[in-house]
UniProtKB/TrEMBL annotation:
One of its GO terms (cellular component) is late endosome membrane. The gene is ATP13A2. The chain crosses the membrane at residues 12-33, 197-217, 369-388, 408-425, 866-885, 897-917, 929-957, 983-1002, 1009-1030, 1050-1083. It is a multi-pass membrane protein. GO terms for biological process: autophagosome-lysosome fusion; intracellular calcium ion homeostasis; regulation of autophagosome size; regulation of mitochondrion organization. This is ATPase cation transporting 13A2. Keywords: ATP-binding, Magnesium, Membrane, Metal-binding, Nucleotide-binding, Translocase, Transmembrane, Transmembrane helix. PROSITE patterns: ATPASE_E1_E2, COF_2. Residues 1-114 form the P5B-type ATPase N-terminal domain. It is found in: Membrane.
Length: 1124
């Protein structure tokens, strides 16, 4: 973020105040719209250290103005050490007592403090970003009251405070909105022009609109504040050893938090130091399965909440229960690491409050189109000025009439009208269980070109069924044992029973569905200590027991012996990045402790002694994975009795293990998955699988759900990084049996489509060492396996660099980063709304994806239709007024009111109610308002509008009974007259005609007649206009100031002219839809697509020799270095 400092200049401030008075406040309105101008006008540039005001510019080019705040802080050099003290505080002598002056500013809820050594304002979180895990353990004794008070002054209150503005402030801000300022200007102009009825009606509607808007904004802010703000009483430990109950608002980083056994709703981010916590994180991640959190190891490594997720308690999550704190009490101990908007919840709430601008062409073009209408208004203003000048109009009439053109051509309701389609789509989605927290992204759904899917729980069932166990014997793998409970007593059975993070809640086991199935298959039972567990701990060697696993009672009776129970004393939970978990167990009777590891077969095998891994490991794993089984491996080792099991680190446990065998689980594809993937494929939407599972299992699932066709080839991408022994290499080989002797051939020439499959390690090497090949791999890769959470996010961003509009569908915490990075993120969750992604679906399958895309396309098409209709409505009225100005007359007060309220507004509201088509069409709707078909249709329809109104006027003039308007007056004072009546008649039909013409149906929306309300209103309005033209009656005719023309043939001719106008415009619209304007592209010549992925696709299709099979490709980066 670019930051510039400014200081107040006294004379400039007073000069601006004087100018504001002289301009009757207009200068203040300008400053409100452009705060940067206010700073430049009142201040002078200065160094940041001396600044009173800061001008901020973010990465999107948006500018903000913030005030620099100061606060006196009592001197406490021991707070963060002398170095930190000198960084963030200026010292001054006040009343002979040393005080520190803290300089800071608040931006989007975050506090930025001045660091003199760095010469910049930095986030206050920088003061604790270098804390190591051992540093956090040092805070376990608690802070003193003085330290806590000093930190609170620096870090500020622990609040995620969503500002809820008062109705009066909202009213002032809303009225100063350019839309309403323009409305005030227009209403004033109409009142001066004696359009009292019309001005009064628009005024009442504006008041109603503002009232509704204020209520909705206040309601939404209050709802979000209630969701975000959490104030509760918590217990903290002080340095004196005492425990104190304080408000959560007073919490600061470094506070030692005592978590009660029954849990709590956490008001901050904290690192768990002692005990274990079962946490429900569904509000943040959408993951409904509770997660077990374990204590943070006291290592010297830098602490990061992302890398230490399994040891971090996040703000806003529900701690269901806490246990294992140790001597001196129950519950758990944690240290506060982040507060307020610096927490994970604060970051997500901030993304809702201050969303990044959506880089969507439709919204950019809408602003450009308004400028185009402004240019049209300028031309109309000049023309009307010339016409009125020739008719000897007064100066006041000249000003009023010319300004009136501006209010006609630039409809103030245009920006609001294009959001109507989005609002209707959001309501339809909510009825079908899809909730949206970012409505502008609904239109983006209509342009999605690629969708990424997680595998487990998204494409496949969440629950897994145990297929069997293959234990390692003296000669390799034994036969598959379908019932793990039949395994003989030994390390394999103990590992299956103990290597998990399942906990009990209310006597019911809670945890990962896979681990629940694994424990169930062994028949062993989980028990957790209750109350005083001193006796239990002593039975297991004096270790703190977290859980006890006991064999089934029938097994004890059958064997006639008392089988030993196993106590779990340490847990190292599963990490997606590490692809494994481990536990330390002890048995009663002085037996040595055993460590068990469970995880991906490749990872577990790499951590085991080579001689314990069977030779057929790879072939067995490939067989199971190719058949679509989920395979986990287990290992174990006996721990040295001298090892301190209470403080031992994970790395010391998870090495030199003995390979135990494989756990094989069947993971079925959800019945809906194949149908949805086929629907997307027929719609020419590319689908990609991103999973943490084995690459062969992923390929099998991709084939099962239709991502990879039965006749398609799968080519594996293998990239290796630079090592001390070798250079980085990239190799492609066919999936059938791995390496093949087949020479490099053109797969397309042989009639085969191909898909690339790549794992996380190769993806990392590809990004680091082969960036020149990365776009080509991304273009053809369908399966991404063994991908860590940060790699999923990186993949989404790399695909976006190719100009893909990327969607992402997932169901767990591992997908949160990718869900937020994608253009459209869909979280499958039972929660009504999760801040993890813009869209949350209550459905447990991917059937919501086609629905979302169909609604997005419908909303985008509707927004296009409404935008074009509002533009054409302005142009119809613009033509009418200019024609009548030329004839020295104008539309009447109630005529304007009838057109705007009863015709246009009613049609615009109902136009957006049409629902989406039942099928996905292969072509996506356009997103550019400045494309040739859109501009061409507007030009043609405007020409037809002008010709229609002129034809009506000339037909009227050519009649024998026509009496020319001969008056010294001008404008509406000449009503009723024949010229106005004929233009009124045809323009009234044109408002309805344009609504019919621009309301697109097939293929992205249901046909017009399915929108029953809109269709009925069209018929009623057509009948109404026909009645007003043919026989308005004396009362209505007088009310609308229509001239009484008795010639019925002439009236029928006007209706026929309107019908011809409809026919011609509709015919031109159909011809434009089928591409009649494409000859212009032909004349221009074929140009390559602006989208990089389309250009790459053409290039790869014309390169049959790519990818080169079985040919190691060196990195060009290393080649250049080597040559140089």
């Amino acid at each position: 973020m670019d930051v510039q400092g400014y200081r107040w200049v006294c004379w400039k401030v007073w000069f601006c105040r004087l100018a504001a008075v002289l301009t009757l406040g207009l200068l203040l309105i300008l400053f409100h719209w452009r705060p940067r101008l206010a700073v430049l006008a009142r201040c002078s540039s200065c160094p940041l250290a001396l600044a009173d005001v800061l001008l901020l510019r973010d990465g999107f080019g948006q500018q903000y103005v913030v005030q620099v705040l100061t606060e006196e802080v009592a001197d406490n050099r021991s707070l963060l050490g002398d170095q930190e003290d000198s960084e963030w505080r200026d010292t001054v002598q006040l009343h002979k007592e040393e005080k520190m002056l803290l300089r800071y500013y608040l931006f989007e809820g975050l506090r930025y403090v001045w660091l003199a050594r760095k010469g910049a304002f930095c986030r206050v979180s920088v003061l604790n970003e270098d804390w190591t895990c051992s540093d956090l353990h040092s805070f376990q004794n608690g802070l003193s009251p003085l330290e806590q008070s000093s930190r609170r002054h620096i870090y500020g209150p622990n609040l995620i405070d969503v500002p809820v503005k008062s109705y009066m402030r909202l009213l002032v801000e809303e009225v100063l909105n350019p839309f309403y300022v323009f409305q005030v200007f227009s209403i004033t102009l109409w009142m001066v022009d004696k359009y009292y009825y019309y001005a009064s009606c628009i005024f009442l509607i504006s008041v109603l609109s503002i009232s509704i808007s204020l209520y909705e904004i206040h309601k939404q802010s209050t709802t979000l504040r209630n969701m975000a703000q959490l104030i509760t009483n918590v217990t903290v430990r002080r340095s004196s050893g005492e425990e104190e109950c304080i408000s959560s608002v007073e919490l600061v980083p470094g506070d030692c938090l005592v978590i009660p056994q029954e849990g709590l709703l956490l008001p901050c981010d904290a690192a768990l130091l002692a005990g274990e916590c079962m946490v429900n994180e569904s509000m943040l991640t959408g993951e409904s399965v509770p997660v077990l959190k374990t204590p943070l190891p006291a290592s010297e490594g830098r602490y990061s909440s992302d890398s230490e997720r399994r040891h971090t308690l996040f703000c806003g999550t529900q701690l269901i229960q806490a246990k294992g704190r140790g001597t001196g009490g129950t519950g758990a101990i944690a240290v506060v690491t982040s507060t307020g908007f610096f927490t994970a919840k604060g970051d997500l709430i901030s993304s809702i409050l201050y969303p990044q601008p959506i880089n969507f062409r439709f919204y950019r073009d809408a602003a450009k189109f308004l400028l185009f209408l402004g240019f049209v208004a300028l031309i109309g203003t000049i023309y009307s000025f010339i016409v009125l000048r020739r008719s000897n109009a007064t100066v006041l009439e000249l000003v009023i009439r010319t300004l009136d053109i501006v209010t006609i051509v630039v409809p103030p309701a245009l920006p609001a009208a294009i959001t109507t389609g989005t609002i209707y789509a959001q309501r339809r989605l909510k009825r079908q269980g899809v909730f949206c927290i970012s409505p502008p992204r609904i239109n983006v759904c209509g342009k999605i070109s690629l969708f990424c899917f997680d595998k487990t729980g998204t494409l496949t069932e969440e629950g897994l069924d145990v297929w069997g166990v293959m234990e390692v014997g003296p000669t390799g793998f034994s036969e598959l044992v379908s019932e793990p409970r039949l395994l003989p007593r030994g390390p394999m059975l103990y590992g299956l029973a103990c290597c998990h993070t399942v906990a009990l809640l209310g006597g019911q086991p809670l945890g990962d569905p896979l681990e629940l199935k694994m424990i169930e298959s062994t028949g062993w039972e989980l028990h957790e200590p209750e109350g005083d567990q001193t006796e239990l701990d002593s039975a297991f060697g004096g270790y703190r027991v977290l859980a006890v696993m006991r064999p089934p009672a029938q097994q004890l009776q059958a064997e006639g012996t008392v089988s030993e129970a196993m106590a779990i004393i340490r847990r190292f939970p599963f990490s997606s990045a590490l692809q494994r978990m481990s536990v330390v167990t002890v048995a009663p009777g002085g037996h040595p402790a055993l460590a068990f590891i469970k995880g991906s077969p490749e990872m577990v095998a790499s951590l085991c002694l080579k001689e314990t891994v069977p030779a057929q490991f790879s072939s067995i794993l490939r067989t199971f994975a190719s058949d679509g089984f989920r395979v986990l491996a287990l290992g174990h080792k006996t721990l040295d009795g001298k090892m301190d099991l209470k403080t031992v680190e994970r790395g010391a446990i998870e090495r030199d293990m003995q390979f135990l065998g494989l756990l094989v689980m069947k993971n079925l594809v959800k019945p809906e998955s194949a149908g949805v993937i086929n629907t997307l494929r027929l719609a020419q939407l590319r689908t990609v699988m991103v999973t943490g599972d084995n690459i062969l299992t992923a390929v099998n699932v991709a084939k099962s759900c239709g991502m990879v066709g039965s006749d398609d080839r799968v080519i594996f991408v293998h990239a290796t990084p630079h090592t001390a022994q070798s250079m980085p290499t990239l190799r492609f080989h066919l999936g059938e049996g791995g390496a093949t002797t087949q020479s490099t051939v053109g797969l397309y020439q042989n009639g085969f489509a191909y898909h690339l499959a790549i794992n996380g390690k190769s993806f990392a090497a590809l990004c680091d060492h082969f960036p020149e090949y990365l776009p080509k791999v991304l273009m053809r890769a369908t399966v991404y396996a063994r991908m860590a959470p940060d790699q999923k996010t990186q993949l989404v961003k790399e695909l976006q660099k190719l100009n893909y509009r990327v969607g992402m569908c997932g169901d767990g915490a591992n997908d949160c980063g990718a869900l937020r990075a994608a253009d459209v993120g869909v979280s499958l969750s039972e929660a009504e709304a999760s801040v993890a992604s813009p869209f949350t679906s209550k459905s447990d399958n991917i059937s919501c994806v086609p629905l979302l895309i169909r609604e997005g396309r419908c909303s985008l098409v509707t927004s296009f239709s409404l935008f074009r209709y509002m533009a054409l409505y302005s142009l119809i009225q613009f033509c009418s007024v200019l024609i009548l100005y030329t004839m020295k007359t104008n539309l009447g007060d109630l005529q304007f009111l009838f057109f705007d309220m009863f015709l246009v507004t009613l049609l615009a509201i109902l136009m957006g109610t049409g629902g989406p088509s039942e099928e996905l069409y292969p072509r996506r709707p356009p997103a550019s308002l400045l494309a040739l078909p859109v501009l061409g249709s507007l030009l043609i329809h405007t020409s037809m509008i002008v010709l229609g109104q002129l034809a009506a006027l000339f037909v009227t003039i050519s009649q024998d009974w026509y009496i020319p308007l001969n008056s010294t007056k001008s404008g509406a004072e000449n009503l009723p007259n024949m010229e106005d009546t004929c233009v009124f008649a045809l323009s009234g039909f044109q408002y309805i005609i344009m609504a019919i013409v621009v309301t697109k149906g097939y293929p992205h929306k249901k046909p017009l007649y399915h929108n029953v309300a809109f269709f009925c209103v069209l018929l009623v309005l057509l009948a109404l206009m026909s009645w007003l033209v043919l026989y308005p009656g004396p009362v209505i005719g007088k009310l609308l100031q229509l001239y009484n023309i008795s010639d019925m043939n002439f009236k029928m001719l006007l209706v026929a002219l309107a019908a011809l106008n409809l026919l011609v415009c509709f015919l031109f619209e159909v011809l434009i839809d089928v591409g009649i304007l494409n000859f212009i592209y032909w004349l221009r010549g074929t140009r390559p697509s602006k989208k990089q992925y389309k250009r790459l696709d053409v290039s790869l299709s014309d390169s049959p020799s790519w990818p080169p099979l079985n040919q190691p490709l060196p990195s060009t980066q290393w080649t250049v270095i080597g040559v140089s």
